[in-house]
Amino acid sequence: MTIDSSQSSSSLDVNSLEEKRSEQSSPSSEVSSGGNKRLKQSTPAVVSSNGSKRSKQSSSSEVSKEHENSASSDRRAREKIEKIQAEVRFKMYASVLSDKLVTRIYKKAKVSCTDDDTRRHLLERIWAEVKDIDSPFIPKRILDMDIFKELCKKWPSPEMLMSSLLGRDPELEISIISILRRRLCKKPGFISSFRAGISSFFRR
Q1: Has residue 113 got a pLDDT over 80?
Q2: Any domain includes 19
Q3: DSSP state of 131
Q4: Given its phi and psi angles, is residue 110 left (phi above 0), alpha (psi -120 to 50 degrees) or beta?
Q5: Is the pLDDT score of 199 beyond 80?
Q6: Does residue 130 contact residue 184 with C-beta atoms inside 8 Å?
Q7: DSSP, res 29
Q8: How far apart, in whole angstroms, are the C-alpha atoms of residue 84 and residue 78?
Q9: pTM for this predicted structure
């Protein structure tokens, strides 16, 4: 009977030790499982933060591209408007020049000028030959007097000039156009601009 009791007590001791070990091991398992849960929860957060960063970068790049596209389109529209305005000013200058040149020729020939067809024809001929000039230099004053003086070297009298003008002489029209193109394609220097300003002042 004594042996049985000792055996039973030893078995109880073993069981109690095993229970204590299991109790000690169970928190570690719980901790590890909890750590795994935390890792699983933290991993999507990192992924989501990286995804948000990429989305922000892509959105900022798209916004910058939109700004660049709008700026380039605005620049093209501005250049187009400036080109149209320059062409309108150039044609207006050619119109005033042809009108004043015809008036000067008639005035020097002492004839009243009422021929609108001649004015219109001369303007069409001049504009057809000078409109292709790239970035023409448009002087502040009208060059009708300068052209008239150069024409007088070939046509000695205003009457001859008027006759050639009314007859739509191709030689006269070519001479007018060549003189005008030479003046529009060449920018004068400071001295010539100063002399032109002084002469135009004394002609007033």
Answers
A1: no
A2: no
A3: T
A4: left
A5: no
A6: yes
A7: H
A8: 10
A9: 0.57
38 in a domain, yes or no?
A: no
HSE on the CB side for 38, CA within 13 Å?
Answer: 6
CB atoms within 10 A of CB 168: 13
Q: What confidence tens digit (pLDDT) does each residue in 59-83 have? A: 777 777 777 777 788 888 888 898 8
Residue range(s) defining the domain that contains residue 152: 87-202
- What's the rounded Cα separation, in Å, for the pair 66 and 35? 47
Query: Does residue 67 sit within a domain?
Result: no
What is the domain count for the chain?
A: 1
Would you say the C-alpha torsion 58, 59, 63, 66 has a positive or negative sign?
positive
Nearest-angstrom CA–CA distance, 22 and 10: 18
Work out the end-to-end distance of the chain between its first and last CA atoms, rounded to an integer number of angstroms. Answer: 151
Which of 51, 170, 60, 187 is closest to 122 using CA atoms?
Answer: 170
Q: Say which DSSP state 204 is in.
A: -
Domain membership flag for residue 27 = no
pLDDT at 89 over 80: yes
pLDDT in tens, 172-188: 999 999 999 998 886 65
Structure token digits, residue 92: 């207006």
